[in-house]
Amino acid sequence: MNRTVYLNGEWLAETEAKVSVFDRGFLFADAIYEVTAVIDGKLIDYPGHAARLRRSLDALGIAMPVEDAELLTLHKEIAKRNGITEGLIYLQVSRGVQDRDFLFPETMTPSFVMFTQAKRVLDNPKWKTGLSLQTVPEGRWSERQIKTVQLLYSSVQKTQAHRNGFDDVLFVENGFITEASSANFHIVTAEGELITRDLSNALLHGITRGSIVDLARQAGVVAHERAFTVEEAKSANEAFLTSATSFVTPVVSLDGQAIGTGKVGPVSQRLLEIYIREQLSRALPIAD
Ligand code: PMP
């Protein structure tokens, strides 16, 4: 194939068109797309696709990469350049390129890609035979134990929370806390016992979480793995997050309400110290 694609204002051979590995579409699924069919050299249902493009971009706070008139011109131009009379035009707009971070600034320069696919869309054999389908559970996307890059919701929620003066968000499902945007969440009861959500598809199975539960038990801390509510968390003595690069980070308030004394608690402090000491003692050297 030797198509001409459109990338950020340039017409390029498809093999020459490159998007940065730091593009948020690649790293966070922070991108939207549209597909418009072409039949007989005509754009099908185009106004609807152009309107939905704008709605999707507005909903995510991504700038429209080109004016409306220019968008239509580009659709015509890409079809002409590729000799497409029947097929489709695919377009994708991502928030743009920045060093990887769940937080993003209010203004970024979007990445904008368009390409064509020549394809018979008018003689679909299934129009004669019909389709056979299988039911599966609705789960888009509820397989959170898989560490996918489908991070758009987490990134947008964390950024909004930041703009509202919070450090992070805590996701709640049916009244029960699952986890933070990129860390597991744990509480410590008045009895000094650790409670952390049990493993399921509701949350990522944090490596740090697993190590902390083991280390806490070795240090004589009773640890329970079960679901707990927002109310239980708000009335806990202490709370903390765990993740690979933040280790054990105390949480001192939730929705503006202090947890325990509202200061870093002794159990969280102790677990942070134990984690760093133990992990350093078994850490793998980089140099041979
Ligand atoms: N939950 C989510 C959603 C995360 O993104 C992360 C960190 N990547 C974690 C939990 C913590 O996992 P780990 O301790 O393996 O870094």
How would you portray this structure in words?
The protein is of the alpha+beta class and 288 residues long. The chain folds into two domains: 4-118, D-amino Acid Aminotransferase, Chain A, domain 1; 126-281, D-amino Acid Aminotransferase, Chain A, domain 2, CATH 3.20.10. It is built from eight helices and 15 strands. The strands form four sheets. Strands 2-1-6-5-3-4 form a six-stranded antiparallel beta sheet. A five-stranded mixed beta sheet has the order 11-10-9-12-13, with helices on one face. Strand 9 (184-188) and strand 10 (194-196) form a beta hairpin. Helix 6 (207-218) crosses helix 8. The structure holds 4'-deoxy-4'-aminopyridoxal-5'-phosphate. 4'-deoxy-4'-aminopyridoxal-5'-phosphate binds next to helix 6 and strand 12.
